[in-house]
Amino acid sequence: MTFLCVSAVKNKKEVFMNLEKFVSSIDYDVKLTKYDILGSIAHTKMLAKCKIISQSDAKKIINGLNSIKKDSESGKIKFTGEDIHTSIEAELKKRIGEVAGKMHTARSRNDQVLLAERLYLKDEIGIIVEEIDGTIDAIKKVAQKNLSAVMPGFTHLQNAQPVLFSHWFLSYGWMLKRDKERFKDCYKRVDVMPLGSAAFAGTEFPIDRNFVAKELGFSKISENSVDTVSDRDFLIEFLFDCSLLSMHLSRLAEEIIIWTSAQFGFIALSERFTTGSSIMPQKKNPDFAELIRGKTGRTYGNLISLLTMMKGLPLSYNRDMQEDKEPLFDSVETIKNMLDVSSAMIDTVKINSEKMLSSCKNGFILATDVADYLTSKGIPFRTAYNIVGKIVNYCIKNKKSFNDLSIAEWKKFSEKFEKSVFGVLDFRKSTELRKSYGGTSLSSVKQQLKKL
């Protein structure tokens, strides 16, 4: 039945709006079809087990649901109505008659919807974790191919200290490893069976919630029926995890964008992951990396949308909560696409090790090594730091590099300098000296590759 109301009066004519369309969620919650049916089958089995409905009625309901599931998967059926949950029940009634109504005994749409969402999200978290693993593997593969390449490390996007490219690149692998751990931890709070909470107060029927949990693969059941139907924490936590993961992918994408620029020239991507210009024939734009960076805003928006929707809701259920699905579904698909594209793009990365090494000559990036040299001679580090700062200013003023200085010039700043200082002025040696746990030495990188 379609409900209409007068929404405005224009030129003395009534303009009608479709209220049913306003409250309908069928256009997007159809994604939960499989999970709603699986939940209903488990619930029906439980009703029969507990002798709340007969075994013969349960068999009719389950057979009908399975036929709907099959037709849905083959595209033979198009659901219409207010939402997928009521649409499936309506379709079941068409197929088996009034007995279909017994399926909804001892449950509410409130806990029914939550069950479908949790089942859906459990599956999607598993897929996302696998895709994160794939992206980590792609990062490790590039690092392994380029173990010894030296590049300038940056702070404030300024040349800072020499670092192995493999060490720098693996840092993104460690970010994604934390993301993976967060999703796996989030799964624990998604893996809670809500059915049996009914509208919010539970049910008077002698149901067996643990049976349903076991049927559907949940490790536990919820403890408080009011909290259960009011809860969207698990979705907000998931959306936060998506936002943080997308931020990490965006930072990697930004690095790729910078490194492929003519100003850097550190890496090149396959032409599959660049596009041309409509007017400039020479252009190879890193559009895929830019879109990864751009889509991060969508995941942030989805998180803020749900946080804002929930912030002022009184207990227990409110219709506002229907608005949880579009942000959820969008973030799931967005983050999977971002991971897929990131993995494939990273696989094509080819580095220009010569350009990386030559870039180390800019910005006095061995200044810390020189300060450490003086410190090893007994000078307090802060004093050594100030001495080297003066040497850098001297070099800038006289348009010289450290390698251009004579030993006499070095000694003007400290008598502790000896000819051995020239041995410090080696970018590769600088990286090898940083053998502290987690540092940029080659042995450290090899250990990381084993652990990541």
Concise account of the structure shown:
The protein is mainly alpha-helical and 452 residues long.
Please name the defining characteristics of this protein.
60% helix, 8 strands, elongated, single chain, two-stranded antiparallel ribbon, Ribonucleotide Reductase Protein R1, domain 1, Fumarase C, Chain A, domain 2, Fumarase C, Chain B, domain 1, 3 domains, 452 residues, mainly alpha
The biggest sheet, with number of strands, parallel, antiparallel or mixed sense and barrel status, is: 2 strands, antiparallel
Q: Work out the number of β strands.
A: 8
Q: Which percent range fits the helix content? A: 55-70%
Order of helices and strands: EEHHHHHHEEHEHEHHEHHEHHHHHHH
Please describe the topology of this protein.
Blueprint: E1 4-10, E2 13-18, H1 19-23, H2 26-29, H3 33-49, H4 55-73, H5 84-96, H6 109-145, E3 150-155, E4 158-164, H7 165-190, E5 192-193, H8 209-216, E6 220-221, H9 225-230, H10 233-259, E7 267-268, H11 287-310, H12 325-347, E8 350-351, H13 353-359, H14 367-376, H15 381-397, H16 407-413, H17 421-424, H18 427-433, H19 442-451
Parallel strand pairs: 5-6
Antiparallel strand pairs: 1-2, 3-4, 7-8
Helix pairs in contact: 3-4, 3-6, 3-8, 4-5, 6-7, 6-12, 7-10, 10-11, 10-12, 11-12, 14-15
Written account of the structure:
It is a single chain. The protein is mainly alpha-helical and 452 residues long. It folds into 3 domains: 29-105, Fumarase/aspartase (N-terminal domain) (Fumarase C, Chain B, domain 1); 110-199 and 223-357, Fumarase C, Chain A, domain 2, CATH 1.20.200.10; 364-451, Fumarase/aspartase (C-terminal domain) (Ribonucleotide Reductase Protein R1, domain 1, Orthogonal Bundle), CATH 1.10.40. The chain is 60% helix and 8% strand. The protein is built from 19 helices and 8 strands. The protein has helices at 19-23, 26-29, 33-49, 55-73, 84-96, 109-145, 165-190, 209-216, 225-230, 233-259, 287-310, 325-347, 353-359, 367-376, 381-397, 407-413, 421-424, 427-433, 442-451; strands at residues 4-10, 13-18, 150-155, 158-164, 192-193, 220-221, 267-268, 350-351. The strands form 4 sheets. Strands 1-2 form a two-stranded antiparallel ribbon. Strand 5, helix 8 and strand 6 form a beta-alpha-beta unit. The longest helix has 37 residues, at 109-145. The two termini are 57 Å apart.
